[in-house]
Amino acid sequence: MSVASTIVVKIGTSSLTSTDVSQVALSTVANLVETLCTLRQQGHQVVLVSSGAVGIGARRLNLVERPKTIAMKQAVAAVGQGRLMRIYDDLFSVLRQPIAQVLLTRSDLAQRSRYINSYRTFRQLLRLGVIPIVNENDTVAVEELKFGDNDTLSALVASLIRADWLFLLTDVDRLYSADPRSHPEAQPIHTIDSLADLTALKAVAGGQGSQWGTGGMLTKLEAAQIATTAGIRTVITDGRQPGNIAKILAGEAIGTQFAPHPNPSQARKHWIATGPAPSGRLYLDAGAVQAIISAGKSLLAAGITHVEGSFQPQDTVVLCTPDQQEVARGIVNYSDQDLRQILGRQSHEIPKILGYGSATVVHRDNLAISQSLV
Fold it and tell me: Cα–Cα distances in Å, from 333 out to 122, 292, 315, 356?
């Protein structure tokens, strides 16, 4: 038996349904449920991130293509989410495994208080032996609060609960040097051992994988980058063969495996500095610049003099001196609109202005000093 671990499993729409979403792939879902219950019985803590609400909702409404407007997608997701959970509940109940539905938006993981509440909820559910089933809250999420795809959501959930493994179940058995469906000569990729190799692979990855899914191989690579920089071993493998999860945990070389970075904190800062394209710039006063560079402090609203660009919470921004020299990059906790209302203000004033508040604009753990200053 493998060492007990905390495991996040993400399964996509293409694995849960037939090609035209005419029906749920019940044999696959049943196999997945049986596999996850077996893992629980072995002592593992398990979280399932499941797509499929929109696809199942579309089937019940006899739609022939994926909804394009937010309002339509939310309506279809509302129809499908209940049916999706009913299917899971029926199958897990046969094996006497309790489950819970957890619906998240980006703000649940962006705002510090909601992040902590989400963490506590997951930890309590796992302590109770429950398998949380997670999906994006499509029914209420507006565009700026969306994760964009469940690959990203699964990586963020894995990071939140400090998982050991992230399994991305998809419609191919592993990564290849090209799309094996159109390039029979494509070579399999068994392991990705470094952040540099992963970044290079992202540069040649394709886009959306299917008509009904929101992800593709690129989103899976981005999810792998988020997870591995947090120290989480990540695997891409065949969603139609959920039993592979147990085999991989037992040591079999199945799928494409991404090695976790040995120093998650250092890797995360490297990713912040080189990965996401900055969405805006924050200009700081001399005191804030000194506090960040010399004392390793977080950035507070009081030290910001000017905001440039358009961004949302968890986007990357550049931190600049008054004369426009870049000093750092970081993951911001506020949108540009909210930040313009609180720049220069003390932390205790923020809740009165915005109705909510994070103590930091950019936390020091999410801040990478420019290499020229290190």
Answer: 22, 16, 8, 12
Predicted confidence (pLDDT) per residue in 221-247, tens digit: 888 988 998 899 999 999 999 999 999
Model confidence pLDDT, tens digit, residues 119-141: 999 999 999 999 999 998 766 55
In the chain, the DSSP E strands lie at 6-11, 45-50, 99-104, 131-136, 165-170, 175-176, 188-189, 191-192, 233-238, 256-258, 280-284, 304-309, 316-320, 326-331, 367-369
CB 208 within 8 A of CB 215: yes
Name the domain count of the chain: 2
In degrees, rounded to 5, the angle at the alpha carbon of residue 156 between the alpha carbons of residues 210 and 74 is 50
Which residue reads 């692979």 in tokens?
A: 201
H helix intervals, 206-285: 217-229, 244-249, 264-274
CA 61 to chain CA mean position, Å: 29
Contact 284, 327 (CB under 8 A): yes
Nearest to 135 by CA among 91, 105, 168: 105
Instruction: Give the structural domain span for 251.
Output: 6-266
CA distance 57 to 67: 10
**Pair type for strands 326-331 and 304-309:** unpaired
Co-location of 257 and 288 in the same domain: no
CB atoms within 10 A of CB 156: 26
Amino acid at residue number 258? F
Pairing of strands 280-284, 316-320: parallel
Regarding beta strands 45-50 and 131-136, do their DSSP bridges make them parallel or antiparallel, or are they unpaired?
A: parallel
Instruction: Examine the domain organization and report whether 290 and 207 are in the same domain.
Output: no
Asked if residues 333 and 358 have their Cβ atoms less than 8 Å apart, the reply is yes
